[in-house]
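User: I'm putting together a small comparison set for a docking exercise, and I want a reference complex before I start. The sequence is below, and the ligand is manganese (II) ion. Could you produce the 3D structure with the ligand included, as structure tokens?
Assistant: Of course. I'll restate your input first, then give the structure tokens for the complex.
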Amino acid sequence: MATYAIGDIQGCYAQFEGLLAMLDYDPARDVLWAVGDLVNRGPHSLEVLRFFYRLGERAVVVLGNHDMHLLAVADGNTKHHKPGDTIAAVLEAPDRDELLGWLRTCKLLHHDPALNFTMIHAGLPPQWDLTQAQACAAEVEAVLQGPQAHEYLSRQMFGDTPKRWSADLQGWERIRFITSCFTRLRYCDRKGALLLKNKHAPGQGTPDDHPWFLHPKRASRAVRIVFGHWSTLGYYTGENVYALDTGCLWGGDLTALRLEDCQAFHYPCPQARNPQDEA
Ligand SMILES: [Mn+2]
């Protein structure tokens, strides 16, 4: 029995199947974790969603920005629909409500004490320890599964403010800040404010761009974290984190990390998307 954390798949179902074959994955024996962004930009989001949905408790998925985007568009938030989106097959599928209903029950953070691993899609602000991160994730999960989900998905979840954590944040500002951290964060400045526009590889920005996991005052340093979202970072280990987005979509690899012994597996992928086509 093994537990494999899989990097950002983004609808690249054939490459995902290739990786599973490389792992000799057996659904009767093994458990899959996915760091989110199951869907969009790649060609086969529907197949990826169905695969994880059918695994039930043999899989753990945390939500990424593209998964949230799918939920928002499906909820009617078409003004955020982008020309490069490849989610139409999901929206038109006969089982869409089942799949999207399941996706809404996925978490923003998963913590497994026995494996000593925590999984998120993007990042944590330096001020949060694990307890704070778990509490914040639960706040957004409750909104997504509760009566305010429509207001959240249609009007409140998108936006780059507020940028700085305060325990006193309230209402939608608080929910939006938490969403930004878990689904979009790569960099913070020295004072711990989110730099959500920055997508570059480490070392290519200004000296005040701190990858969230390198922030000198990060309160979650004692926690072993697996995450995705950052294709220009590539496979990275250090500071107790494992970054698994290796740019499958862009002709890089699709990566799995076996959590029992931290062995990484990289499946080489043909390019499914040209970065120059991206807005
Ligand atoms: Mn992402």
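The radius of gyration is 17 Å. Residues 37, 64-66, 121, 229 surround manganese (II) ion (CB under 6 Å).
User: Thanks, that's exactly what I needed.
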